[in-house]
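pasting input
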Amino acid sequence: MRTIRARRVAALGSAVLAGAVLAACGGSDDSGGGGSDGDTIKIAMTGPLTGDSGQWGKDQIDGMQLAVDQINDAGGITEGPNKGKKLSLDSFDDAGDPNQGASVAQQLCDDTSVMAVLGPVNSSVALAVGPVYNRCGLTEVTSYASNPDITLKGYKNVFRSIPNDDQLSAADVAAAVQIAGAKTIAVVWSNDAYGQGLWEGVQASAPDLGATIVGDASFTKGSTKDFSSILTNLQGKNPDALLLMADYSDVGLMTQQARQVGLDVPIVAPTGTSTPEFLDLAGEAAEGMLTPVLFDPSSQDPEVAQFVKDFQAKFNRDPGESSATGYGSVQLIEYALSQGATTREDVAKELSAAKQMPTILGDITFDEHGDPTSLTSLVVLTVKDGKFVANDKQLQS
Amino acid sequence: MSNFLQQLINGISVGAVYALIAVGFSLVYGVLNLVNFAHGDVLAAGSFLAVALYGIWGWPLALAVVIGIGAGAIISMLVELLTARPVRNAPRLIPMITTFGAALIIRSFIQATAGSSTRPFSTPLSGKSFHLGGLRISWIAVVTIIVTVVVVSAFGAYLKYAKSGYGIRAAAQDLETSALMGIPINRTILVMFALGGWIGVVGGLLYAAQIQAVYPSFGFAILLKGFVAAILGGIGNLKGAVLGGLILGVVEGLAGPYISTAYLDAIAFALLIVVLLIKPNGLLGAQVQERV
């Protein structure tokens, strides 16, 4: 009796599974093709709108929406065969999860009305979706995922508008050495593509910058939230500064817990930490920490100041760092479209060929990998009275 | 050496939390032979409620904690009524699956209402500590250990001396016979779930106070540790659950930094496998006959 029932259950299970697989395959045979549909051109944003890096995605989508609205209000694309066409922007939540990211990517590949993808935000997701977009020829511009390998796979349609982990983590080490005066550093890194990329960058840049790594520890992102044993152990190594290479939620918890175990050395956190959520989680322990950023909201640059003003007017809050990078990525797509891109493949060709595309974070030319040839200059922020402000002392160039 | 002692203290305070989780989990197994997967998310729901009342709406901490604990007990009873009781006499796999479903529903509910991000939980004791010799001892750790000792002893006394506690012990020995002897089984089991949820939320909140945050999947994450602790000590055994929790916490604290902190979860299960190879019934498994 039991075996018969078990067999029946197994058979039912396989039938359900087979059905799911068929459903997933359905509709994928009409990929490729263009993206213009009448008077609007559809672009898609992917990123975490929920989860521990959700703020990055929410900031990005708002920055992108602002850019899209401004382009449309000014009459759409200004030149070429797309002249006068408006942009429409849809967002897709990947929750910062590579599995969910890959299924979103497949969905966007299958939707032939999508002309280009802006995102993803997390490195681990970007590594997972690269091959998917490469297969269907859909152009992907990420403006927040920083793992170096993302653009090193030889894909012609994958671009990144910001510096990679090698450059970003070198800035973290430089902040520890030049601003916090550290000679020895301890590093905690999340065991995913993001933390690992940063950790490799720290190891590569530390000797040249004059820092000695006296201890390091990794943790499993999502399952370790109690860092007290890690931090206690690193405290035993007497570092001059602590580098926390992870997303802002975990950095917030570690900052708080470092102070709790009595590890009172200066803390340096990677680009991406400067979010209100970090401040909530870290509380008073955040005071004095350092983080290099791509975008300084208090910048005197007129274009940046205008962006901050427009963003505040539209969303009634301050823009995040990824809002600015997201805004810039829409500017890149707009540029490609104004140069006459009418298919998915064209977008990649125009982006590769273009020189000095104007964006809010400076003019961008892509190298053969799809990385920017010149680097956005980084500004080091610190936390003072519960707010992020530009640090008095900045990195030596 | 001081690093070793410091890690030992960290380990004991985390282990105390694992013990509290393991007690409720082990209790249910002891009586119903049921692996109650909803236990972790029940305690997460109660903890989230307390954290929200205190952190977002500014209620007094004590009141928020009491309401959170009460909510945990009620949700745990609902799990029993809706997902465990209707299938109590079905093969043991069925209620395990239904409680797993309840876990997912509760977690989704938390995510839908509170969002899926990590939320701060800062208590007046957060970050406060005192020095003892060369050691730094956080007040949260002290509170955790005291609360655990009080709750576990009170619970032990309840099982031993209270009438309904007596009922739970009888049910653990033999559910059917105790029903025939006039023990109100439905009520006894309901009370047991309520107590498990109650103690679970206490553990959840102490853990949240240690890491100074809550996140939607934290219930399931610490349930895994409670599960290991319960089996380690000998499932269905109260003392075993406490012992298993403490051992697991200390081993994680001491071994983690020396082996690799990236393998913290793996260390827990490796320890479990080693212990089960030597003592298949868990550390206090010999007493498994007299469960709870």
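fyi Chain B is about 75% helix and 5% strand.
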